[in-house]
Structures are given as C-alpha cells and as structure tokens.
Write a structure and sequence with these properties.
The complex is a heterodimer of chains A (349) and B (610).
Chain A: H1 3-13, H2 19-34, H3 38-54, H4 58-74, H5 81-95, H6 103-119, H7 125-138, H8 141-152, H9 163-177, H10 180-191, H11 202-205, H12 209-214, H13 218-232, H14 239-252, H15 254-269, H16 274-291, H17 315-337, H18 341-348
Helix pairs in contact in A: 1-2, 2-3, 3-4, 3-5, 4-5, 5-6, 6-7, 7-8, 9-10, 13-14, 14-15, 14-16, 15-16, 16-17, 17-18
Chain B: H1 11-22, H2 28-47, E1 55-60, E2 67-72, H3 79-87, H4 111-116, E3 122-130, E4 138-142, E5 148-152, E6 160-167, H5 177-188, E7 195-199, E8 202-205, H6 224-235, E9 242-246, E10 252-258, E11 271-275, E12 278-284, E13 295-301, H7 317-340, H8 342-362, H9 364-370, E14 375-378, E15 381-384, H10 385-391, E16 394-397, H11 401-413, E17 418-419, H12 426-436, E18 441-444, E19 455-456, H13 459-476, E20 481-487, E21 495-498, H14 501-515, H15 518-529, E22 537-542, H16 546-553, H17 559-573, H18 580-609
Parallel strand pairs in B: 1-7, 11-13, 16-17, 16-18, 20-22
Antiparallel strand pairs in B: 1-2, 2-6, 3-4, 3-6, 4-5, 7-8, 9-10, 10-13, 11-12, 14-15, 19-20, 21-22
Helix pairs in contact in B: 7-8, 8-9, 13-17, 14-15, 17-18
Classes of the chains: A mainly alpha (349), B alpha+beta (610).
Organism (chain A): Paenibacillus albidus
Protein name (chain A): Tetratricopeptide repeat protein
Organism (chain B): Paenibacillus albidus
Chain lengths: 349, 610
C-alpha cells in the first residue's frame, strides 16, 4: 500500500510505547483510512490499542478497538482474530473506569466477549476472571469473590492472562477486603521475584505499602516504595501507582510525597482515565491533609493547566479541592454502579 | 518404620538442559573454564599473599582432532574437594551451605556446574589437579552420562589445575585459534595476571598490562588515546569521547563511551560488564538508567550478583544503587560540561538530543543547566531553545504533531513562533520551561488560538456578511463544525480547518461508531457524550482569498453547497479521512458543480448565439 503508511509504521515500531508512538500510529491510521485500506487500518489499530492500553490512553484504545471489532465482523476472513480477542480483555478492564458508560453496556460487552470466546472454543475461565475484575470495580466484593473462586477452579488456556497478572488481581482483592496479612501472603510470589511480567511487579508494589505499614513493617515498605516509584514513574499508565506512592509517603515522608505530587500533577490533570484521576486526587488530598499540620510556608509548584494557581500557598484549600474532585467522580461512579462504594472509600482515607 | 529416599536426577538430561537452555552460546565453556582458573588463583592468593597467578591455554591439532588445555597455577583440588565440587551440582565451589547464587563471596565460579558446560563442546573432560595443601596429584575423567573416575598419580606436581578437552564433532569452531584468542581476550582482558595462548610454534599474550585507570577511573581523563583504544578493542567501535564512571564505594567503575551516531530509543543496550575482572555480560541492559541510551559502557564491578546463566544481573537493590550512581556520574559530567566545556556538550546534544531530553524530563536541575542547547522544531526552523528564546520570550507549543501541522503554514505566514510539541518529550519539556527559566513563558497553543493573529473583519463587513455567515454556519452544523470569517495570510489559502486534540478524538470516535458492533457503538456513544461541548471544529474562511470573497458575496442559493465543498476540500488538504456523510457531500457536490458549470456555459453560449 502507499509509501506514507509503511514509513509511518516503521517510524512507529522504532518508538517506545507512549504518546509519541500513538501520535505516529494515528497518522498511519489516517493514511490507511484515506486510502480505504482496511488491512492497513487494522494493523495500525492493533498497535495503537496495545500502545494506548499500556501507556495510559484507554479512551484511544477503546475507540480503535471498536473500529477493529466492527470491521472484523464485516470481513472476518481478512483479519486474524487471536490478537483481537486477546485485546478484548484490555478493553473490558478499562470500560468501567468511565462513569459515563452505563453498567448495562459494560455487561453487554462482557457477555459479547464470553460468546465470542465460547464460539472459538476458549474456556469460561477468562470470562469468570473479568467478571470478577468488573465486580471488584463496582465494589461488589462478595460476588467478585465467588467468581474468583470459580475462575481458579478452571484450567488455563491460550486466552488466560499470565500467572503474574492473575496473581496481582488476587492481591488487589485482598487489599479491597483490607486483609493485610493475607495480602502479603498472596503477594509473596511476586515480591520474591518468582512471578513477573511486563506489568508485574510494577502494578503490585505500591498496593502492599499500606498493609506493610499497618503491620508495623515500615522498613520493608520504605524499600518497596523506592523500588515501586522507580518502576512506575516513567509511564503514564501508572498514575494510580504514583497516587499510592503519594498516599504512603503522606504518612512516612510527606515532603517527599509533595515532590512526587508536584512532578506528576500535570500528568494527572490531563489523564484519560477518570478512575485513576479520582484515586490520584483522593490520595493527594490525604497528602495535603497531612501537610496542613506543618508550619512551613508552602509554595506548591502547580502546572499551568491547574485551574487555581492561587492555591499554591494554601494546602488547606488544596486538600479541599482534591477531595471535592475525587468525590465528584466517586459520585458519578456510585450512581452508575448503584451503590455508595467509592464515596465511602474516599471519605475513609 | 519410615525410609527416607532422595530424588534422583538424570545427569545426562541435566547436562542437556544446561547446555541447551541455560547458556546463550557454547563458547561460554571458555568463560567457565577461565572463571574456574581465576577462582583457583584467587583462593591461592588468600593462602599466599601477593601470589602471581598465570593462565596458560594450549591448542594442538586442527579441526576435529583439536585438543585444548587450560592450565592455572591456582590452589588445585584434593580428592575430597573433587567429589564435593565437581560432583555436587548446586553446590558452590567454596564452603558453606547457603544458596550458591545469592551468596556473596570473593569467588565467581560454581566449579561443578561451570565445568559441565564443557560437555557442550567435548565428549570427555579430563582434569589433572594438584592441591597446594598437599596430597597426591589426581586425574579426574568426566563423561556426559554423569559418571566420573579418579586416579591418583604417582608423582606430585606443582600446584594447579589443567583441564583437557577434545573437540567433539561439530564443535570445531570453538577450538579455532583465532576464535580462542578473541574470546579469551573478551572474557579476560581486564584480568590482573597474564593469560597466554600457545598453538604449535606460535605463542601470544592475550591481555596486556592492566591500565591504572581500571582501579582509578578518574585517571582515564589523562589517557584519552589509551581509553579510546580499549573501547575499540572491546566494543568494536571507534569512539571519540567518553565519560569515566565510578561509584562512591569504589567497587564499581567503568567508562561510558559516547556513541558516535544517534541511536534509536528502543535500541538494545549492549554494555559490557566485568565482574571480578571477568566478563559477565556483553548485553547488560539494566546497568544504567533508561535515559542513558547515548553511551555504551564497559563496567567493572565486584559487588553485583549475576543471574544463573551469569549473563545478566539480578534486579536487586544493590543494582539499583549502582545504576543510580553510574547515572549520576554521567549526569554530573554533563553538568560540568555545561559550565566549562560547552562545545563538547553541544556536540553531544546535537548527536543525542533525545537521550538528553529524556534526562531533562526526569531531572529539573539538569534541564535548567542545559535547556539553552536543546533543539526543537518550530515555525522558525529547527533551532536551539536558547535561540528561540532570543526571538520571543513566550514560546507557544502544540501538544501533538497533528495540531502543529494544521497551523504551521498559517503561523509561519504570520511570523508567529510555534514549537512542535508532538515529538517525544517535547511538550513536557516546554510545559516545564517556566519553572526552570523564570524569564521564559510557555503556552500550549490550540489550533483555534491561531485565529488571534488573524485580522478581524470590520463592523461594516460583519453587517454585510451577516446573513451569509449564518447560512454557511448552518450548512456545517451537522459536521459539528463552526465557521469564522477572517482575513489572514497566505491569501492563496481559502480556508483553514482546525481541530483541537479533543475534537480530533471525538472525530475518530464518531468514525469508529459508524463501523463498530452494536454493543461497542453504544459504549462509544456514552463516551462521546462526555466531551460534546468542547468538540467543535472550526473552519476559518479567508476573506483575502478571491474565491472565498466571491462565494460570500455571490448567490446565496449556491452558498451552502460551496461552503460544504470548501469544507471537504479543507479536510482533504489536512489529510483527514472522511466520514460517510462527508464523502456523500463530496460526491454530490462534484456532480452539482459540473451541472452548474455546464448550465452557466449554456447560458453564455446562448447569449453569444443571439
């Protein structure tokens, strides 16, 4: 096909995942679409979906994936379905983060994935796993637990997430239930390095900081915090983990926490994932709630995109601001989910 | 009563696994032998302070009859040690019951397991050894099926160990003289005692005298030629510049050679790391911070733990510390250059801007020191930030390449300075600029902002064009596009289509909705509702353009069709793929204008005929 497309794809393959690569891929997609070349458009979108999912642009991933799945249904002899159906999981993992998407639509998607997997002979295991993941996101933990049990009783197949990723969700579940000792037990294979992958332990380390802290094991937690931050600081996808780092530092080293906050606020402000933004704001408000006990004259560095530059010297107003931000999203999520889970969660921090 | 049994391990299977899966290449047998020799010498050194080690390799025969021996004058083994070290896999060569990998000792080898790697190239291993602690000399013969014999020799030998290997069919290249010389150099170039290689009548020294700057990397600065020469020999590349590396403890040092050509961000990193003088890895990726991809290093250390294959290092806290410190050495050298050696720094930035920007994004202080020399693409050309700031104290930048492309033409015509922030790190750096350089301001420019530099139409013109402007606006309503009538340069440009990142996102969302499945289309619909408000695109009509002037002053009946055609024309100029609706406009428009063209022609013909 046209030279433009090939050149752009080559350029994209040379770039690491992230914003710049996505920009080039979007250009390639435009070139393919303008030329009406479905296969090229599909190829570029496959790359885009992966890059966007793993660098914190879930909206872009959902849009590109929607195009792919629609085209696949119309011309399924043209495209390979394995990668496409694999990426369906990534999409399901992200849709519930957007409060504007009603629950019914999310559940429809999950059922659609279940049907497609079944048609190709894949087991129900992946469905059960993502059902649990979604239930955890809705705050329906008891029901999530039942699906986690069911998922663990089934055999792995080619659509299963890697073991490290699965283990990580089991840790998340213990964290949500607030079972600190069990959290650490379940986290052991990851913390010891036996299980790892492209995303693990990056996404794991920050989740065990608070459990360790509550169990009085601050020295271990401090070490893991530094390691965690080193792993997550460079990737836009890890905003939540940055937030968890800030949350922990708010208790142990609040001025270091403030440094992290200043460094990552602009990333949070124009992030695509509202759920991650909410958690970042919530953790930021715990930081300022801690900092307001200090007597120093604050001059917090705020990026130009922050709407209230006048709050720079006023940590009390910053605390309020971020709490309000977090609660606003929590309220929308709770209305969508039909409970008051996130509102209470954030108030309890 | 209960019996306890032991698991039995099938050794030939185990050897197969080691040979085929643990090591990346059979030539590592040489490294393992060398390592055993080094360990033996180190152990002897502990016994006799200042003992001078020596390793001799001899090659006889050619091709499939080749035999190789490696001899050291180290501590040797007695019978008990032979059984213990050579026959117990998983046991470290030297005392203690701890896990053989995690323990830190002054030895690098794991004698038994290392020796087994020789089965990759030889069907039998023969070893003659004499312990420095006395006892008879021993001859050990090992077979790949896992059996071995030991014979006591009658005469005592001088202490040391000699290993004999005979080339196994297919392994000839691992016994070639040139290869041996090269690999021995690779593995042992930094050893503090001599390795020599003899073959027939020829004999050569593998490693030269150990340069003094290995122990004191700072001294490397005064031995530039020597350092560059070693780089060329070890890394196979001619470098022109380097930065000495060392950690505070002095246990890790090295040379970071600056790559003479720009490298890809994703390029595999191939640093060479020597552990206790021996080459451990030729492709250590994790020894330097991610941003430091503009250098290739030789690093020597005695404090890191190699992985089981001894080709990489464990990602542990120690490694993290070392990585930070080595990164800091590079960073502070660059900072020093910013003060004292700017031309050298500018040369590095010119070659490796991306790497330097990666560091600047992470490190404000560094950014403050070097921002002047960072190159950016702008409507004034590709220039250093310092030069751009001399032109304007406010830097406008776009967030994406797309936004930049939309306005670059027009911005250049208005002499506006706009920087393309679409390249990796650029918009982040520009957003940070005011924090590190208080005199400078930076602002994100959205495509619609460019209109601030356009000339507004006059009050009279506004009145004159009021109705037509409304009609035109209504015509594009269904494309979520609003219109503005302005005057701007260049006058050849009839219209400028601008789409902010937000509306570009909505545009591709709408396009995906058109083709997607029902379940996903409804999801996209819900998603789209969240950014409706911001998502209008704008089409600026240029009243300085004669066609536009005519369209807006002409027949109001033709106006909507003409505006629609100018709209799709602007889309095509901007390389935007068109939706079904837009394609339909294009098709109908072409037909309609052809008709109008002929109709107008006929009227004219008719007129002429009369």
């Amino acid at each position: 096909m046209n030279l433009d497309f090939e050149e752009l794809m080559e350029e994209a393959y040379d770039l690491p995942r992230g914003k710049a690569q996505i920009a080039v891929l979007e250009q390639a997609i435009r070139a393919a679409d303008t030329a009406g070349d479905l296969e090229a458009g599909f190829e570029a979108r496959s790359e885009l979906v992966e890059s966007a999912i793993f660098s914190g642009y879930p909206m872009k991933a959902i849009v590109a994936f929607s195009w792919q799945l629609g085209q696949y249904d119309k011309n399924n002899d043209l495209f390979d379905n394995y990668q496409l159906l694999w990426s369906y999981k990534w999409i399901l993992d992200k849709v519930a983060c957007f409060p504007d998407i009603p629950r019914e639509q999310i559940d429809n998607l999950l059922d659609d994935m279940k049907k497609r997997y079944a048609e190709l002979g894949y087991s129900e295991r992946t469905y059960c796993f993502y059902k649990a993941v979604l239930l955890m996101q809705y705050g329906e933990l008891e029901e999530a637990g039942r699906y986690l049990d069911q998922f663990q009783s089934l055999d792995r197949d080619e659509m299963s997430d890697c073991e490290a990723c699965e283990q990580n969700r089991l840790i998340d579940y213990e964290v949500l239930l607030g079972r600190d000792e069990r959290t650490l037990r379940v986290a052991e294979p990851i913390l010891s390095g036996q299980m790892s992958c492209g995303e693990v332990p990056h996404v794991t380390l920050s989740t065990v900081l608070m459990p360790l802290y509550r169990l009085g094991r601050q020295e271990e937690a401090d070490k893991l915090q530094r390691k965690s931050y080193r792993l997550v600081k460079g990737n836009n996808d890890f905003l939540l983990q940055i937030g968890e780092n800030i949350r922990y530092l708010a208790l142990t080293d609040p001025f270091r926490g403030l440094e992290l906050f200043e460094k990552h606020l602009s990333q949070a402000l124009d992030h695509e994932n509202p759920w991650d933004q909410m958690m970042f704001s919530a953790y930021a408000s715990t930081l300022f709630s801690r900092l307001k006990q200090e007597t120093v004259a604050f001059q917090v560095k705020l990026p130009a995109s922050f709407p209230h530059p006048e709050f720079a010297s006023d940590v009390v107003r910053l605390e309020q601001h971020f709490l309000q931000e977090a609660l606003a999203t929590a309220d929308r999520l709770d209305r969508r989910n039909g409970n008051s889970y996130y509102g209470s969660l954030i108030q309890s921090l | 009563m209960k019996d306890t049994y032991r698991f039995q391990v099938n050794l030939s299977g185990m050897i197969n696994i080691l040979a085929n899966h643990l090591y990346s290449n059979p030539r590592v047998y040489l490294r393992e032998l060398l390592q055993n020799a080094v360990d033996a010498v180190t152990a002897r050194n502990e016994l006799e302070e200042g003992y001078q080690g020596q390793i001799t390799v001899e090659l006889s025969g050619m091709g499939s009859t080749a035999t190789m021996t490696m001899e050291d004058n180290g501590i040797g083994l007695n019978e008990e040690e032979v059984h213990q070290f050579l026959a117990m896999i998983g046991q470290s060569s030297k005392r203690g019951g701890e896990d053989f990998i995690s323990r830190e000792t002054s030895f690098i080898g794991r004698f038994g397991i290392g020796l087994l790697s020789c089965f990759m190239v030889s069907d039998e291993i023969v070893m003659i050894t004499q312990s420095a602690k006395g006892g008879p000399a021993l001859e050990w013969r090992g077979q790949p099926d896992g059996t071995y014999t030991i014979r006591k020799l009658e005469n005592a030998l001088s202490p040391g160990t000699k290993v004999y290997l005979r080339c196994k069919p297919g392994s000839e290249i691992y016994f070639g003289e040139q290869n041996l010389a090269k690999w021995l150099y690779d593995y042992g170039a930094l050893l503090p005692y001599p390795i020599s290689l003899h073959s027939g009548s020829s004999s050569r020294k593998i490693n030269g005298t150990r340069p003094v700057w290995i122990a004191y990397p700072e001294l490397a600065r005064d031995r530039k030629e020597e350092v560059l020469h070693l780089g060329e020999q070890l890394l196979g590349e001619r470098f022109h510049d380097f930065i000495p590396l060392h950690t505070a403890s002095g246990r890790t040092g090295g040379i970071a050679y600056i790559l003479p050509q720009a490298v890809n961000l994703n390029a595999k990193k191939t640093h060479r790391v020597y552990l206790k003088h021996m080459l451990v890895s030729e492709k250590a990726e994790n020894i330097l911070p991610d941003w430091a991809f503009f250098v290739k290093c030789i690093v020597w250390t005695d404090e890191l733990q190699p992985t089981a294959s001894r080709e990489h290092f464990y990602e542990n806290e120690k490694l993290e510390e070392v990585r930070e410190e080595l990164g800091e050495a590079i960073r502070s050298e660059l900072m020093r250059m910013a003060d004292y050696d700017q031309s050298r720094l500018r040369q590095i930035i010119g070659q490796h801007a991306l790497s330097i920007k990666a560091l600047a994004v992470e490190d404000e202080n560094f950014y403050r020191m070097i921002y002047r020399w960072l190159p950016f693409e702008s409507t004034f050309g590709r220039k250093e930030l310092g030069e751009l700031l001399k032109e304007r104290s406010t830097i406008f930048y776009t967030l994406t390449l797309d936004e930049y492309r939309q306005i670059t033409h027009v911005a250049a015509a208005q002499f506006m300075l706009v920087v393309n922030g679409g390249y990796i790190y650029d918009s982040e750096l520009l957003a940070l600029l005011p924090q590190i350089c208080p005199e400078a301001e930076s602002k994100r420019l959205q495509p619609e902002d460019i209109s601030f530099s356009f000339t507004d139409i006059t009050a009279d013109e506004r009145r004159q064009y009021y109705e037509n402007t409304r009609t035109a606006d209504a015509a594009l309503q269904r494309f979520r596009c609003q219109i503005q009538l302005k005057r701007f340069k260049p006058s050849e440009l009839p219209a400028l289509y601008t789409l902010s990142k937000e509306s570009a996102d909505l545009r591709s969302l709408e396009a995906a909705k058109e083709v997607s499945t029902d379940a996903l289309s409804s999801v996209l619909n819900s998603l789209g509702s969240s950014f409706q408000a911001a998502a209008y695109s704008t089409l600026y009509f240029n009243l300085d353009n004669p066609v536009v002037a005519r369209v807006f002053s002409g027949d109001p009946a033709m106006l909507p069709a003409a505006v629609e055609m100018l709209y799709v024309n602007a889309l095509m100029m901007g390389h935007y793929p068109m939706s079904r609706q837009e394609l339909a406009v294009l098709n109908e428009g072409i037909i309609r204008f052809i008709e109008w063209g002929y109709a107008a022609g006929n009227t004219q013909d008719g007129g002429n005929g009369q």
